[in-house]
Amino acid sequence: MTTFIAAFFVLLVFSGATWFLLGRYAKKHPYAKRIFLFALCVHAVAAFGIYYTEFYPFGMGDQERYQTAAELVASDFRAGVFSLDRISSHLYITSAAHWYPVVLGSVYAVSVPDRLVGMVLNAWIAALSILIVFFLALEISKSSRGAFWAGVVASLYPAHVYFGSLLLKDATVVLLALAGLLFAVKIMQRFSPRYVIAFGIALALLFHFRFYIGVALLYAFSFSWPFIRGFTWKQKVQYGTFTLLSLGLIPSFLGYGYYALDIVAHYTRIDQIELYRESAYIFENSPDVQVGENQGQGVEGSTIVVEEEVAGSKPEAAGLASVQGEEQSAPKGAGGSTVIVKVGDGPLSFIRNYLVSLSFVSLGPFPWHFSLPQHYFAFVEVIPWWILLFFIVLGVRKRWREWQVFLPLLLFALGTLVMLALLIDNFGIYMRLRMPVFLVLLAFLAVPLSRMSKNQLYEIIRYWRRRFHRLA
Fold first, then answer.
1. What are phi and psi of 7, to 5 degrees?
2. What are the tens digits of pLDDT across the range 329-380?
3. Minimal CA–CA distance to 179: which of 210, 217, 151, 211?
4. Element (H, E) at 182
5. E-strand stretches of 56-201
6. Which residues contact 83 (CB under 8 A, 6 or more apart)?
7. By C-alpha distance, which of 10, 177, 40, 178 is closest to 109?
8. What are phi and psi of 389, to 5 degrees?
9. Residue ranges of the domains in the chain?
10. Model pTM?
11. Per-residue pLDDT, 329
């Protein structure tokens, strides 16, 4: 009971502070409070429900490691020890490559060091992400009602509801990516040094927590710069020289090279692509898993579930199952959520297989990828996504005259999916990593939803409910 009270108190404090700030700085947008409250309720219920029912069909992942590190940090903070060396030691011992456990430990130090407290903190962070989706939708559609309904749909995005409510860094990564994109959209409409500084801070934090999402954000903004509004070409060159050159230094300071070129060059080497696409998510000493047929597309069955964080990791070949030859027997795995797409022997086969992988990452997983009962939970996400994608494209088409404004959003979505398709073939992982992409694209729903009445919306919901009942 003490844990529940402490978690509820933490949720109340953070949400209360957000409510106060919205009342003070977002008076022109009354829907902002409503969507934040709705999203907070959805994610808080998910967090409490998952915790008390122990609903972990896909495993615990890194939650135990983060919890251990956070408890050690909280213990030091309570004792008045704020040594960076001690923090680094705790992170090293628990194999945490970022400061997410430090954030958790800071909250634990003034409350209760229980996993539920961290989960409700993530629920609050996830609600902030939905709030940013609302403001992105508002920038695109200029309709508060449409932005509200886009936020409602985003609040019910299954992967974000589940993974965003766990004790994982995914909620923080999504928040930073969306915040960076909101500042990018603001800059594209009207240049402001404060937005550039805010964008730089979000970018630096994103590189720290998940560098490849930071790479997508940095390049999406940089490629969008020539189309910024309100500047002559001379001003674009003058301001862009300082702005873009300065932003390129952020990954350099964090060890990724100027404009992250070092890390990009590393992960686009053919040996690294083969490592991640063909063996990085295959581990031995697990129960046998049946292999699917090739189907003429370079797809080679199912292998394992990998719930561990992969950001910044470079698995050594010695610890992985080797991949030799075109035909390979099924590796031994535990969960069957890896669908191997071979790199290919030449340019044509590489392109063909890469497009297959891209279709998996952007539209999958597909039914023939499932090998365990819990995999069918993915239907809750992918079926609505296939339907919503039509309305997203419709929203983009109707607002195409404003393409300069939302160009960073489209480039970020495309860039992230392109990177994931290049290196990741485990749908248990890419369903988590693509969350900022899907949430950004859901913001475009505000355009068609802004012209719908409540009665029309209810009719659409009832229609699809009947369709699903017939399928069932």
1. -65, -45
2. 333 333 457 677 777 777 888 888 889 999 999 998 888 888 788 888 888 9
3. 217
4. helix 170-189
5. none
6. 76
7. 10
8. -60, -35
9. 1-168, 188-259, 268-387+399-441
10. 0.86
11. 30
Q: What is the pLDDT of residues 432-452, one digit of tens each?
A: 999 999 999 999 999 998 877
Closest CA to 185 of 447, 32, 409: 409
Specify the residue for token string 């402490």. 6
Report the C-alpha gap between 391 and 386 in whole angstroms. 10
Rg of the chain over Cα atoms, rounded to whole angstroms, equals 22
Task: Determine the pLDDT at residue 438.
Answer: 96
Residue 436, preceding bond cis, omega within 30 degrees? no
Q: What is the DSSP string of 250-299?
A: HHHHTTS-GGGHHHHHHHTSHHHHHHHHHTTT--SSS---PPPP-TTTTE
CB half-sphere exposure, 217, CA atoms < 13 A: 33
> Judging by beta carbons within 10 Å of its beta carbon (0-12, 13-18, 19+), is residue 27 exposed, middle or buried?
exposed
> In the beta sheet, which residues pair with residue 426?
338
| pLDDT at position 232 | 87
The answer to whether 460 touches 161, Cβ cutoff 8 Å, is no
The owner of tokens 């088409």 is 397
How far is CA 296 from each of CA 46, 248, 289, 363, rounded to the nearest angstrom? 41, 42, 21, 19
User: Average pLDDT over the chain, rounded to whole?
Assistant: 84
Higher pLDDT pick, 411 / 24:
411
pLDDT of residue 334: 36
**Residue 376 has which token pair?**
């069918």
Residue type, 405: V
pLDDT at 197: 96
